[in-house]
Amino acid sequence: xxxxxxxxxxxxxxxxxxxxxxxxxxxxxxxxxxxxxxxxxxxxxxxxxxxxxxxxxxxxxxxxxxxxxxxxxxxxxxxxxxxxxxxxxxxxxxxxxxxxxxxxxxxxxxxxxxxxxxxxxxxxxxxxxxxxxxxxxxxxxxxxxxxxxxxxxxxxxxxxxxxxxxxxxxxxxxxxxxxxxxxxxxxxxxxxxxxxxxxxxxxxxxxxxxxxxxxxxxxxxxxxxxxxxxx
Length: 231
Fold this sequence. Notes:
231 residues, alpha/beta, 6-stranded parallel sheet, 11 helices, 6 strands, 11% strand, disordered C terminus
């Protein structure tokens, strides 16, 4: 595996890339949807809503079912996710080592709210490796799959989108990175990734898929030595 363009910035998604949170959040979403009369299998929640903001997920669910979700749906889910974060959340295996060794600037651009982002990164010990360069979807008008968040992050980091690499685990995230004119690496180390996840990420524009932090480290930390400052 190799990257074909020089890059000066790596943008990491958070959930499912830095922290193994999607498997927790997705199960909570599926359980809560079933409890309130919107039964959606876990696998469907993964395929349809991973990487999207809570507002986008609400809109899609309500459009599909033709009726509104309870007004407190997001608050109930957020409270249950916080409880899981405090007891079960872990970083993706090997990701802290990667963050400590990557030489080019890096940041986080996530569909999660700022409070959830900080909690997840603090609970897994990753916050000191990334702050203050942590960007949330609330900072832009349109979330993923629109390119706005990635373009905003690149601008804040002073990087050219064409020289930026995005690491993403979701369809919406890959689409957003491609729309932003960035190189996208699919990442399938998260516990939520299904058997066909590699193919799905490649089908929407990921240049390559890595299945572990070790593979991602080999790709980024090898190529960045050759490519940094090139072009």
